[in-house]
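The instructor's notes for this session suggest beginning with a concrete chain rather than abstract definitions. Hand out the sequence below and ask the class to guess, before any prediction is shown, which regions might be ordered.
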Amino acid sequence: MTKDEFVSRFGGVFEHSPWVAERAFDAGVARPLTAGGVHGAMVAVFRAAAEAERLAVLRAHPDLAGKLAIAGELTEDSRKEQAGAGLDRLTADEHVRFTTLNSAYVETFGFPFIIAVKGLNKDDILKSFETRINNDRNTEFATASAQVERIALLRLTGLLPEGR
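After discussion, reveal the predicted structure:
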């Protein structure tokens, strides 16, 4: 697989951040390609990146049940993930609650609330939202980064065999 092919296939795993895939390829991804192997290489790149670059990855994520979802402008992965958690079927009151929490969270931390929603429902997500909004910024930056890494693994598992 060429670098262009690799980036084309895996460049969206870290939301709108193909540089992660580019650097992982340049660093040498173990063959054969497996979800665990590609994930490990991409996580190493993400963790080694400058804080400003990691922050840009966090900021590339959409608000949960936010404006992009309403406008139908989520990436296909994000749309499927949010729909799987029922975020596309919120009541009017639930939508107001998500919007209020999204705004408060971004104002507090400077990036959107990020959670790997697979296996969660809207109540689980709201509970986590309401808990995490009380974290300090360093804790929440680390938590959001770990969630980005989890989302990447879930996406890669859909694209590749799971081995390491």
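Then share the key points. The CA atoms of residues 2 and 83 lie 33 Å apart. The chain has a mean pLDDT of 89.
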